[in-house]
């Protein structure tokens, strides 16, 4: 690497090194995307955010989780239980997903979605099919349509 | 034992008998933790009353605290979905992360869903199950993946279009047959002399 070489040879070496460095992907350069989250091991929050507030928050969350776990395991291991353990979180989720109507409000966005998915396909598909068939019928009448039998088309 | 009335409604049940049995069992529990466990606010076994169901968007801090308690979340963690008329109500906004991202080695209550009992479910939970959308970190950056995929597809599309427009095949001519273009095989008269057909040039 340190041999005496003419100028253009050394320039070639230099460009080769920069080219290979550019092809590397460092973990520090990881970019998030909507469908690609940041791995926990690259999340600075996990290493540096160790304030007592955060610890207290984590302890509270753990207490809530432990309480739910206790309730579930009590019911699960109850030898006299005959029925299914109903999950109120699941019930709430199902209820929320099936009953959005009381909280619906016509806004610009919701009206646009309704029009785009209801009115636009209805009329556009009608006109597309009608005009296409009219053109085809005209071609058949004129005799310009190729109607040779073909089993693979 | 806490019998869940909503689940066992289809069985013929003597209402008075059930109520008496439950009361007798609650009394006979004896120890304080059992009774206080029944009377604490975080019980989840009989959650079919109206205040346990999702409701309208919370406007006051008290409503927010009540909603957080209802969904088993901390008040600081609870953030309702935006009130934009799409019908969310007070349902909480949870991080948009798929179930595939969760720890595979922890003992979940429902291992295939990687979820614990009673945990608040994401609005799009059925989309984020492990069979469907996955938001796990990718090995290659998203932009690189997009460039590679669409670059390849675009290149192939362009080349096929060009090939369709400017076709380039090996030149072929009509097939040549010997014996004066197969005169006899094609039903020619054997007594008559066929005309000479020369398919070569020297």
Overall description:
- The complex is a heterodimer of chains A (153) and B (202).
- By secondary structure, chain A is mainly alpha-helical.
- Chain A is built from 5 helices and no strands.
- The radius of gyration of chain A is 33 Å and the shape is elongated.
- Chain B is 31% helix and 0% strand.
- Chain B has 5 helices and no strands.
- At the A-B interface, helix 3 and helix 4 of A face loops of B.
Q: Characterize the biggest β-sheet of chain A.
A: none
Can you tell me the residue ranges of chain A where pLDDT is under 50 for at least 5 consecutive residues? Answer: 13-19
Beta content of chain A comes to under 5%
What value does the average pLDDT of chain B take?
Answer: 82
Amino-to-carboxy terminus distance of chain A: 65 Å
Q: Name the largest protein-protein interface in this structure.
A: A-B, 50 and 55 residues
Query: What quaternary form is this?
Result: heterodimer
Q: How many individual helices of chain B? A: 5
Which structural category fits the helices and strands of chain B?
Answer: mainly alpha
Low-confidence stretches of chain B: 1-13, 29-41
Structural class of chain A: mainly alpha
Measured by DSSP, the beta-strand proportion of chain B falls in: under 5%
| Radius of gyration of chain A, in angstroms, nearest whole number | 33 Å
- Tell me how many strands of chain A there are: 0
> How much helicity do the residues of chain B have?
25-40%
Which features does this protein show?
heterodimer; A: 153 residues; mainly alpha; 61% helix; B: 202 residues; 0% strand; rod-shaped; disordered N terminus
């Amino acid at each position: 690497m340190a041999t005496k070489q003419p100028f253009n040879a050394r320039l070639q070496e230099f460009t080769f090194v920069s080219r290979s460095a550019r092809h590397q992907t460092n973990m520090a350069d990881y970019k998030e995307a909507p469908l690609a989250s940041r791995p926990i091991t690259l999340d600075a929050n996990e290493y540096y955010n160790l304030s007592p507030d955060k610890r207290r928050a984590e302890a509270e969350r753990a207490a809530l989780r432990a309480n739910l776990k206790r309730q579930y395991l009590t019911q699960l291991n109850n030898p006299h239980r005959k029925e299914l353990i109903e999950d109120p979180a699941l019930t709430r989720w199902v209820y929320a997903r099936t009953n959005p109507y009381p909280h619906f409000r016509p806004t610009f966005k919701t009206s646009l979605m309704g029009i785009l998915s209801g009115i636009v396909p209805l009329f556009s598909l009608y006109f597309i099919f009608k005009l296409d068939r009219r053109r085809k019928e005209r071609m058949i009448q004129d005799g310009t349509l190729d109607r040779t039998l073909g089993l693979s088309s | 034992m806490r019998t869940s009335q909503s689940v066992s409604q289809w069985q013929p049940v003597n209402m008075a008998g059930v109520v008496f049995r439950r009361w007798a069992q609650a009394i006979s529990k004896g120890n304080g933790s059992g009774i206080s466990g029944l009377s604490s606010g975080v019980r989840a076994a009989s959650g079919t009353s109206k205040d346990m169901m999702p409701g309208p968007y919370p406007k006051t801090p008290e409503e927010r605290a009540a909603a957080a308690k209802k969904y088993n979340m901390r008040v600081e963690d609870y953030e309702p979905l935006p009130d934009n008329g799409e019908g969310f109500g007070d349902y909480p906004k949870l991080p948009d992360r798929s179930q595939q991202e969760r720890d595979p080695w922890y003992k979940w209550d429902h291992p295939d869903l990687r979820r614990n009992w009673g945990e608040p479910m994401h609005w799009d939970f059925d989309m984020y199950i492990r069979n469907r959308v996955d938001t796990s970190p990718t090995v290659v950056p998203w932009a690189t993946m997009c460039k590679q995929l669409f670059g390849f597809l675009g290149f192939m599309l362009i080349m096929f279009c060009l090939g369709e427009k400017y076709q380039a095949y090996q030149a072929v001519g009509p097939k040549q047959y010997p014996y004066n273009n197969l005169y006899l095989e094609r039903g020619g008269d054997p007594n008559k002399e066929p005309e000479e057909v020369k398919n070569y040039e020297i």
